[in-house]
Amino acid sequence: MANRRLLTAILSSFFFRRSTAKASRYTRSGKSMLDLLHRVAEKTRVLGVGASYSAAKDQINILVRMVRAYAKGEYRAISGKTLLRMVAVLVYFVSPLDFIPDVLPVLGMTDDIALILWLVSSISDDINRFTEWERNHASSIKIG
């Protein structure tokens, strides 16, 4: 229940609306999306240790791979709405000033991780299709 309230507050916050507006600009340029992914990678490297951080890193890596493949034109089976959501969450993730500022030890990452887990859950079918594409794409590269 508390998680749902937190998520509702984050999604309706000024900070997430600002991230969504920025995301619409990012999605117009493959280079901009790749630059964003570089910032995501930098922030992911400094995430803490522990089971929740490890799970979050794994989910972030999937999102990064999906956006990278889209930005490079390798994988386009993502709807515009899903791409916008993914990029908005990643913009929010790299922003130090959000619903719970990242400068607060431990607590500062709570909103970021909650938002990432919500996104992954809400686009699980897209993620499954992408990971299947990745497996097929990787095996075709090895064969060919």
Automatic annotation (TrEMBL):
Source taxon at top rank: Bacteria
GO cellular component: endomembrane system
Keywords linked to the UniProt accession: Membrane, Transmembrane, Transmembrane helix
Limits of the DUF1232 domain: 83-118
Lineage: Bacteria, Pseudomonadati, Bacteroidota, Cytophagia, Cytophagales
Location in or out of the cell: Endomembrane system
Keyword Transmembrane (UniProt): yes
Protein name: DUF1232 domain-containing protein
Record flagged with keyword Hydrolase: no
Membrane topology according to the record: Multi-pass membrane protein
